[in-house]
Design brief:
The protein has three helices and seven strands. The chain is of the alpha+beta class. The two termini are 31 Å apart.
Length: 152
Amino acid sequence: MIANAPVSTYAAAIDPAKATTRTPLRVRFCETDLMGIVHHGSYLVYFEAGRVEWLRKRGVTYADWAAKGVHLPVVEAHLTYRAPSRFDDLLEVDTTLKKLGAVSLEFTYRIERNGLLIAEGLTRLGCIDASHKLMRIPDYMRDIFLAGELPA
C-alpha cells in the first residue's frame, strides 16, 4: 500500500495479461423486444454475467463475499451500442478489470458476435459493508482481483 496516499487516489497495478475473462453467452428469446432485437437493458445483465464469471474463474463468488458482510454494488454504468444482436445469437463477453482503487473498482466490457463489436461499456463498483457503509477493499479481495484465472 502507498504510505500517506489519499483513499481516493490509491490504485493497484493491474497486469493486463491477467485482467480479462471471456464468457460465451447465448441470447434468449425473453431478452429481445418486439423487433426481435436484444433489448437495451439486457446488455447490463450481460455485463453482470461476465463479471460473475470473471470472479468464478478466480475461485470466488459474490455469495462468498456477501457471507463475510462485504458487497460490491454497481454505482455507475455506461453502455454504448454498436450493432444489433438477436435471439439465439452466440455472443462473447470480454470482462476486464480496468481500475482497482482503495474503495472502488472498474470493469470494462466488450460484447462481440463472430468478431463484430455489438456493445461496449463499463461499470464502477463500490465496496460496502453489511451496513451499506463505504469500506476499503480488503486485502484478500484485492489479491483475487489482481490474480489471473485459475487453471480449468
